[in-house]
Design goal:
Blueprint (H helix, E strand, L loop, with lengths): L18 H10 L10 H15 L2 E5 L3 E6 L8 E7 L18 E2 L4 E3 L7 H16 L8 E6 L10 H4 L3 H5 L2 E6 L9 E7 L1 E10 L3 E2 L8 H24 L11 E9 L5 E2 L2 E10 L5 H15 L4 E7 L13 H12 L4 E6 L5 H6 L4 E3 L16 E3 H19 L9
Parallel strand pairs: 3-6, 3-7, 7-16, 8-15
Antiparallel strand pairs: 1-2, 2-6, 4-5, 5-17, 9-13, 9-14, 10-12, 11-13
Helix pairs in contact: 1-3, 3-10, 6-7, 8-10
Bound molecules: N-formylmethionine and zinc ion (ZN) (2 copies).
N-formylmethionine binds next to loops.
Length: about 400
Amino acid sequence: MCSGCRVDRGQVCPEGEDSSVTLFREYLRLRTVHPKPDYDAALRFLDRIAEELENTYMLYLQIVSIMTWEGTNPALKSILLNSHTDVVPVFQEQWKYDAFSAFKDAEGNIYARGTQDMKCVTIQYIQAVRRLKAEGRKLMRTVHLMFIPDEEIGGHEGMETFVNHPEFKKLNIGFALDEGLANPGEAFTVFYGERNPWWITVHCPGSPGHGSRFVENTAAEKLVSVINSFLNFREKEKHRLNTSECLTLGDVTTVNMTMVKGGVAYNVIPAEMDVSFDLRIPPTVNLQEFEKQIKQWCKEAGDDITYEFAQKHMNQNITSTEENDPWWSTFSATCKTMNMTLEKEIFPAATDSRFIRAVGIPAIGFSPMNRTPILLHDHNEYLNEQIFLKGISVYKRLIPALANVPPLPDEA
Ligand SMILES: CSCC[C@H](NC=O)C(=O)O
Ligand SMILES: [Zn+2]
Ligand SMILES: [Zn+2]
C-alpha cells in the first residue's frame, strides 16, 4: 500500500510508517524542479488524490488544479488552501542524500527539495481534508485546494495570471491560507504581508576610449557611484535591523547587488556598464519616495544614467490581524486552543500571497513547522516526520474553524 498509500488516518504502511508520511515522500520524489518541472507528474498525482477524496476536480489553463469540497452553504465566501507545486533547483553535490529520494534518517528527518517549501503543506491540507471527510464532517463554507505552478519563478504563468481569470473570481474566495516559513523555536510564524520585490538594472553609459588614457565621464565611475549609493543604504538598513529588538527581516529594506555587466577587452573603456539589484521593500515604505531616492542616486552618479525594472510590485495590501477581524480571530483563537504561540511577521521574500492580497482577498502565510531550522532553497532541506504529522492535526482544526466562520455582514 505504500506506493499508492490510499490508507487513511492512523493506518500504518508495512514498514511501520504513517500513511501520510508515505504519501508526502511519494510527492517529494516527483521532480517538479526548475528549470524543467515535471508538472505532468504532479497533475497525475493530484488527479489520483482528487479521486480518492471524491472532490470536484478542475484544471484551468492546463496547469492550475483545484479540488473543491463544497460547503453546506455554497453561497458564502469560500476558503482557499493554496500551495505551489514547483520547487527550486538543487546543488546535488552539496546534499547528504539525493534531493529527490526523500530519504528518512533514524531521527525521522526527511530530506528532499520541497520538504519545507512547500510540498509539506500540500500534503498536510490533503490529509487534513481526507480525515475530516472520513469522519463525515460537513463544513458550512466551500473549501478549495489550489495547486499552482511557477511560484518560484515569479508566478507570471501561475497565480499572477490566474487571479485575473474569470474562473478565479467564480471561486468567491473570502480568505486564503498560503505558505510561510519554519520557526526554529517553539512558536509558529505567521505572515500577514510581504515585502515588495523590486528587481532593477541601472544602465551607466560613458565615453569609450583607449585603456591607456584618463578618459572623462566613464561608465565605470558612474557604476561605482551607483553601487556605493545602493550599498551604503544597504548598510544603514542592516544596522537598523541588527540594533533593534523588535524588527525582523520583513521590516527593513534589503538591497543586494546580484549582477554586473560590461566591458569587452582590457584596453577598451566600455561605452556602458550595468548593475542589477534585488530590493525587498516593506509595506510601510512610501514607494514613490523610495523611487525618488533611486532617481537621486542615479542623478548624482552622472549624466544619462537610466534604469529599468524586471519586477516592480507596488501593491502594499496587508491582511488584518486585528482581534475584531473574523478570519484572523478565528485563525488565532483556533491556534490558541492548540496551545500554539504565534509570531506575526512580514514575509521577507515573495510568495503567491502577494497576488491574492492584491485582488483584495485576505491571506495568511503559514507553514506549521516549529522546532525546525529555516532551510527553504538551502542544501539539505529537511522536515521531521513528527512535525509534519503535527501539521496535519493543526489544519484539521483550522480548516473547519475557518470554513464555519458565520456569515459576514456583507454575506447576509
Ligand atoms: C519576485 S518573483 C520571485 C519570487 C521568489 N519566491 C520565492 O522564493 C522570491 O525571490 O522571493
Ligand atoms: Zn514556496
Ligand atoms: Zn521557494
